[in-house]
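B., you asked whether I could sanity-check this one before it goes into the benchmark set. Here's the sequence:
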Amino acid sequence: MAFELPALPYDKGALAPHMSAETLEFHHGKHHKAYVDKTNGFVTEKGLDGLKLSEVIKKAKETNDKGLFNNSAQIWNHSFFWQCLSPEKQAPTGKLAELITEGFGSAEALVKALVTESTNHFASGWGWLVLDGGKLKVTSLHDADTPVVYDGMQPLLTIDVWEHAYYIDYRNARPAYLDAVSANLINWEFVAQNLDGAGVSRADQG
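And here's what the prediction gave me:
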């Protein structure tokens, strides 16, 4: 079965003014869709039909198949990213809030660390909050790289820092985009859900 472009969990205009409907039309409807289409072509060509998306990503990494890896990993990264956003402003609660206080002192300090990491990330990539050894860790990965292929890196939250994620709304002002998203759009309920270690499955398909 071919991989599909997952529907957004909200209306295209629901994240405005922090992320416009036009951005989502291009980012989801064109960029994300292109990764799906290209991956499906590679999968058919290489006889990998029947594998889960996460299995295709790992296979591509193991065989150093950069074309397949870059496209399949970007399907997963984007599918995860859309779920990390919410039209309703939220705050961390429960176990997640406890881990944040333990690791960073406050939710504000965590967000600042994530924004700083993502702002300073050179060129294209993703800012991540992961669970590593039972502790929260802020990091970033280049281009299409993804926690899917790293043992012990359990994905909780990501922010896309490729230019196509923010150029329509913020031009080249990546920090302004990161400030707006982190202050207004983070789906902390989804982040907390991923503490169960099943985050990879939430953007998987097949």
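One thing to flag: The longest helix spans residues 21-46. Otherwise nothing jumped out at me.
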